[in-house]
Amino acid sequence: MLRVPVHKIEPGMVLARPIPSPNDPRRYLLQRDREVPVDLVPRLLELGVYEVWVRCRSLEFVEGLIDEGLSEQQREVYVHVRRNFEAMLSGQAAELDIGRFQTAIGDLFSFLKGQRCGNVMLEKLDAFDNYLMSHSTNVCYLSLLVGMKLERYLIAERSWKTAREAKDLQLLGLGSLLHDVGKMRIPTEILHKPGRLTEHEMDVMRQHPRLGFEMLRGQAPPAAAQVVLNHHQRYDGQGYPERVDARTGDKMAPLAGRQIPVFARIATIADMYDAATTKRCYCDAKLPVQALYELRTMYQGAFDPVIERAFYEVIPPFPIGQIVQLSDGAKAVVVDFNARRPFRPKVQCLRSPTGERFADPSLREIDLGLYPEVEIARVGEVEVQPFQRLSEAVAAPPLQVEAIDDAMPLEVH
Ligand SMILES: [Fe+2]
Ligand SMILES: [Fe+2]
After folding, report:
1. Which has the higher per-residue pLDDT, 127 or 144?
2. What are the two backbone dihedrals, phi and then psi, of residue 223, each rounded to the nearest 5 degrees?
3. Residue 244 — φ and ψ, nearest 5°?
4. Burial of residue 212 (number of CB atoms within 10 Å: 0-12, 13-18, 19+)
5. Measuring CA to CA, which residue among 337, 269, 335 is closest to residue 303?
6. Which end of the chain is least crowded, N or C, by CB within 10 Å?
7. SS3 374
8. How many A from CA of 392 to the centre of ligand 1?
9. Is the separation of the CB atoms in 175 and 227 below 8 Å?
10. Which long-range contacts (CB under 8 A, 24 or more apart) does 187-190 make?
11. 290 C-alpha vs ligand 1 centroid, how far in Å?
12. pLDDT at residue 33 above 90?
């Protein structure tokens, strides 16, 4: 099967996986094995469905790589978040349903641990009809993936806990799922404003971590609440919230580096990546390779280098199943991810440089890690060579996993 952007659907393409309904992700708009009606394309785009999986006889093995259970687990988390958030917004519920979130996160985590593909990002939710809720689910998923990669680091960074407690990701999942919950307290005209925000509106938006932290006070454990409070606090000390001494009212120095709780440092990069790769009212979604390029080049110093490196090891710039054009003109599909050389995955050629179709792409497999003379040139209409060259040129930060004595939890009130 192949990932196909919805605007590229052609007559005769048959769904390899069902398309979930954006209004109720536990139901389907179209079942698997159905031909996708081309005249449905504008409606799918309107509903926030940008990519579908279609059948490709010679690539059936890709189906085995991407377990459908993953998107089911993600949708399960989404449904709980959505139900509770909507009940709160309409005044039918006064509190966050922390217990139910914990159960859904536990199920998602158990699923991720048993995945055949290891802990690599395979797919995240489309925007469905509500950005805040699908974004929350995606940041939770990405944070768990990165956390799973960093067990030793978490033990060092949370040294006041037993090793078992320190690497327990439940509260990372909860904090990252609720990281933007404070946006429910931001006026809708600012939250959904299509154009640029004024300076005053930006100031209002910057209140959402603190508003969320207040909402969680007394309801969620501090480790989760700290993720909510600090998910916009950058490693280099930039970002927000502003810290004020509760007794004197004096401004305090911002948290920076390892003063920022490690779970928040993980959620920060997951948050920025998901925001960049999701279509919103004021900007288009970027390709994974474009978003990774931006994180690596425009936000230098913003992230904990250890976490940043783990992030690049779990987020493929070219997802499995994506169709790409190689620098020699051949068309190929990505069939594997190379964590050591993420920009050089294994591909199988679908068409030759002259356009000749290959009946069996498995006979035309190229490990780009072994062939430096060929690289991925385009994804759809986007030229990706400049992104990947520059991204590769930025040296990978060294992995440091030594214990840090002064890494103590910080309570900010
Ligand atoms: Fe946020
Ligand atoms: Fe966010």
Report:
1. 144
2. -60, -35
3. -130, 140
4. buried
5. 269
6. C
7. coil
8. 28
9. yes
10. none
11. 21
12. no
Kindly report each contact of residues 389-396 with a partner whose C-beta sits within 8 Å and lies 24 or more positions away, as own/partner: 390/293, 390/296, 390/297, 391/289, 391/292, 391/293, 391/296, 391/297, 391/317, 391/343, 392/343, 394/296, 394/297, 394/300, 396/309, 396/312
* C-alpha span between 395 and 19 (Å, rounded): 40
Predicted local distance difference test score (pLDDT) of residue 282: 61
Which of 61-65, 325-329, 362-366 has the highest average model confidence (pLDDT)? 325-329
Domains of the chain: 2-55 (3.90.105.10), 70-314 (1.10.3210.10), 323-393 (no CATH)
**138-to-135, 232, 277, 368 alpha-carbon distances in Å:** 5, 17, 11, 29
Dist. CA 408–CA 182, nearest whole Å? 25
CA of 375 to the centre of ligand 2 (A): 33
Ligand 1 center–CA 96 separation, angstroms: 18
Task: Please enumerate, as own/partner, the contacts of 244-253 that have beta carbons within 8 Å and a separation of 24 or more.
Answer: 246/413
* Residue in the structure block whose two tokens are 């590769």: 392
Residue 402, pLDDT score? 42
Residues 6+ positions from 218 with CB-CB distance below 8 Å: none
- Per-residue tokens: 150: 């960093």
Tens digit of pLDDT for each residue in 285-309? Answer: 788 999 998 898 889 899 999 999 9
Position 94, amino acid:
A
The answer to whether 288 and 317 have CB atoms below 8 angstroms apart is: yes
In 300-402, which residue ranges form alpha helices assigned H by DSSP? 305-314, 385-393
Q: How far is CA 182 from CA 187, 215, 249, 393, 411, in A?
A: 11, 7, 22, 38, 18
